[in-house]
Specification:
The chain is built from 14 helices and 20 strands. It is of the alpha+beta class and about 525 residues long. Keywords: Membrane, Transmembrane, Transmembrane helix. It comes from Flagellimonas pelagia.
């Protein structure tokens, strides 16, 4: 308050500090200022948790170059308890002046039960037995049969898809050998100096090919025995291979023996060249074989797949019919048991349901830090401080997700002051409620209680409801909010959560956030 003749004076008083539910308090603000001063009194629901019923400009008195203005507010509350009327802001020539706060008690209205007419308890009446339980039992039995039938089909009737290993095993020996040689080319054996594994796999590929396609006992033969068998087939005319091809193959096998048994380590380019030579040997050996018979063609995967198509179509039709039946009956049962909304939200999705069931983020925000778990990360906000608060606040850090007018929002703010003074929670909460009003929230109901974090830090929980009525919207929707306030000497921390009233998923999100909330007075 000012002490000079030119400084304005603001005084606030109430006519009572105790009322009954529904009664009114007259809150009077008197301003003494220069006659040329521009004075703005509080407007709207700034007296929350009490509701503003009416505001009257009571009197204006002029005395030379001074003027005395007075405004009276009628306030009420419909819930019993003790409430604090927060400090109000009176703006005089863009200078903000705060009034004192008042503690008001609201008492219940006593009811005289002796004057209330009493009635006897009504007798029991006989009602017909409900068939709901029978239908529910039948649905459970039907669901069980569907599940059993589905399991029988899945594990015993359906044709199981082939794994990659099975698909490779069904390939003809020649195609399989080329595929495995290609995989060996892309392996990391040579990079990791695993030459023994490299050559073991290289020789196994070519030996297995010779055993399956040329019908040689190649896997158990030594190098000399295998070369001797190839030469016998060549001499008999059953395998038209050149001597140079057999000589190259013998050198590769001998190199492999040295690597595997004598710990020899050839140059990398030699090992890569050996793989290319083995691929050429496989190709030349395949070309040297006689034309495949009809029985050989039956082993081809494409040929076998063509023969299986007719049987597969019958399985597909049967599976489609079973699947359609399961979907229909399962959907009908789900709607009957869980309700249409729950099923619809699960199938088509719902914003807050997706948030609740998504991957949550646990993090600390601002300084002093606010730690909490949220459905999504909070984004830093650039907040421009009013000129009147720039001299008071040292630093403000704000983070948020969503918006107050959206389906769900959560935000945090950490403020450090230039002076080591206690934070003004009532003024901060009043500012947030004023912002709600500016965004279209009307008929705000506010309650307060103590809140304790998981580490034992105590704060104030301000919560309530309101009706959101933006100009372009015909029918309003109810919204709920929580304002959590903490602080100490020189700092204040706040968490604000808003969501639609009646949104069960949002209620679960809020509970989870509040259970994870913690604050610290230092980093």
């Amino acid at each position: 308050m000012g002490h000079s003749q030119t400084e304005p004076k603001v005084e606030a008083k109430v006519d009572t500090l105790a009322i009954k539910i529904g009664e009114q308090i007259h809150y009077t603000i008197t301003v003494d200022a220069d006659s040329t001063a521009v004075v703005n009194f509080p407007e709207g629901q700034t007296f929350s948790p009490l509701e503003t019923v009416d505001a009257i400009m009571a009197d204006t008195i002029r005395n030379k170059d001074r003027v005395t203005l007075q405004r009276i507010y009628a306030l009420t509350q419909f819930d019993s308890g003790a409430y604090t009327i927060p400090p109000q802001i009176v703006t005089i020539n863009e200078r903000q002046i705060f009034t004192d706060s008042f503690r008001v008690k609201v008492a219940d209205v006593a009811v005289d039960t002796t004057k209330q007419k009493m009635y006897d308890i009504k007798p029991l009446i006989q009602v017909e037995r409900s068939t709901a339980d029978m239908w529910l039992t039948a649905l459970w039995i039907l669901l069980g049969l569907i599940v059993v039938g589905g399991l029988v089909y899945w594990f015993f009737i359906r044709k199981k898809p082939l794994t990659e290993e099975e698909k490779v095993a069904l390939l003809p020996p020649y195609d399989r050998a080329l595929l495995e040689l290609k995989k060996l080319e892309n392996s990391k054996y040579l990079i990791q100096d695993e030459y023994k594994q490299y050559y073991s796999e290289l020789t196994n590929i070519v030996r297995m090919y010779l055993e399956e396609d040329v019908h040689l006992t190649a896997m158990e033969s030594t190098t000399s025995e295998l070369i001797a068998k190839l030469e016998m087939l060549k001499d008999s005319g059953e395998l038209k291979l050149e001597d140079n091809t057999i000589d190259q193959f013998q050198k590769i096998l001998q190199t492999a023996d040295l690597v595997k048994f004598a710990k020899s380590k050839p140059a990398t380019f030699v090992a890569e060249q050996d793989r290319k030579l083995v691929e050429e040997i496989v190709v030349k050996t395949h070309e040297a074989l006689p034309e495949p018979t009809e029985e050989d063609l039956m082993l081809n995967e494409e040929y076998l797949a063509e023969l299986a198509k007719k049987k597969q179509r019958k399985r597909i039709y049967l599976a489609a019919a079973i699947f359609a039946g399961i979907i229909f009956l399962g959907g009908a049962f789900s709607v009957a048991y869980f309700g249409l909304k729950q099923v619809k939200d699960t199938v088509f999705g719902y914003p807050t349901k997706d948030l609740l069931e998504g991957e949550w983020v646990s993090s600390s925000y601002g300084f002093p830090p606010i730690q909490l778990e949220t459905p999504d990360v909070l984004v830093r906000q650039d907040v421009k401080l009013p000129k009147e608060t720039e001299n008071l606040i040292k630093q403000l850090q704000a983070f948020s997700y969503g918006s107050y007018v959206g389906i769900f929002s959560v935000s945090t703010s950490s403020i450090t002051y230039k002076e080591e003074s206690d934070p003004n929670f009532d003024a901060a909460i009043s500012t947030i409620l004023s912002n709600f009003e500016k965004l279209g929230l009307k008929n705000i109901i506010t309650k307060q209680e103590e809140f304790t974090t998981q580490s034992g830090v105590k704060g104030i929980k301000t919560y309530g409801t309101g009706t959101f009525e933006p100009p372009a919207q015909q029918a309003g929707k109810k919204a709920k909010y929580n304002i959590l306030s903490f602080g100490g000497k020189g700092f204040m921390q706040q968490v604000v959560i808003t969501w639609e009233d009646g949104d069960e998923y949002a209620e679960q999100i809020v509970d989870r956030i509040l259970n994870s909330l913690d604050v610290k007075t230092q980093a």
